[in-house]
Inverse folding.
């Protein structure tokens, strides 16, 4: 069973930056879509950003547009989420997800991001 391994979470001050990484445990693993979701305490999990390996098209939640950037490194088979100008409302557990066009089938364990004011 392939696992998605996230890294890069931590504590950051409001207005600061953080970069999350996600890589599959199997280097040859590849799906059509990769994405980041997040879940804040007491809230449902929500979509943050997504990317297609082929073509590199991206999509973002309105709440992070202009602040977050999702990117993919084909050579490293790794997806990144660059988070700039973070806000307290960005505090959440961030999950990496992967899957075909029909939906996300693979999920990481999550990495905590805490924004201090």
């Amino acid at each position: 069973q392939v696992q998605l391994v996230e890294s890069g979470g931590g504590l950051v001050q409001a207005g600061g930056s953080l970069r999350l990484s996600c890589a599959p445990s199997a280097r040859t693993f590849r799906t059509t879509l990769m994405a980041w979701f997040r879940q804040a305490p007491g809230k449902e999990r929500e979509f943050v950003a997504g990317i297609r390996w082929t073509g590199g098209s991206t999509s973002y939640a309105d709440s992070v547009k202009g602040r977050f950037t999702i990117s993919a490194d084909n050579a490293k088979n790794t997806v990144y989420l660059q988070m700039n100008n973070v806000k307290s409302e960005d505090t959440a557990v961030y999950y990496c997800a992967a899957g075909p066009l029909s939906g996300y089938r693979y999920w990481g364990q999550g990495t905590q991001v805490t924004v201090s004011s």
Observations:
- The radius of gyration is 13 Å.
- The mean pLDDT is 95.
